[in-house]
From TrEMBL:
InterPro entries: Hpre_diP_synt_I, Hpre_diP_synth_I. The chain crosses the membrane at residues 79-98, 105-128, 134-156. It comes from the Bacteria. This is Heptaprenyl diphosphate synthase. Signal peptide: none annotated. Keywords: Membrane, Transmembrane, Transmembrane helix. Pfam families: Hpre_diP_synt_I.
Amino acid sequence: MVKNNIPRLAILTALSSAVYYLETLVPFPIPLPGARWGFSNFAILYSLNSDENLINGIYIALFKSVLGALLAGKLFSPTFLMGLSGSLIATFTMYIVIKTKKFGIIGISEVGAIFNNLTQVTIGWLFIVKSIGIFWYLPQMILFGTFSALANAFVVKSTFRSVNR
């Protein structure tokens, strides 16, 4: 991590953690315990698209998950494990997609949302619920994740436009 990136990463992490916490207060339409909207992932998308540095994206994913879960009182809960795993895998996949130079910011965000949801359901199946039935939630999660990914891409595009004036 470059030293002059520390304040920017701290701001992105703080914003993302606050949004993570606020998401726990807003009911999610799918009756899935611990499900959130996914809007806190905007900071990862912004960081990866602004400097294409995987380590910075991982820092944000890790710290926003820990701080957000700590604020919500869910640190080390099953939903924390699912959310952290999904966020880290989404960060890796978005980074790979960015490096291909074949997708715009919306496509990158959508790929991240799909892999986030797929990872969360897989972690839930393997370590928490231990029932393949949890995969019945995946289509609904991907549908709602699509809207979150679009919103995140919109926020990042708007931020880039504002910053680059």
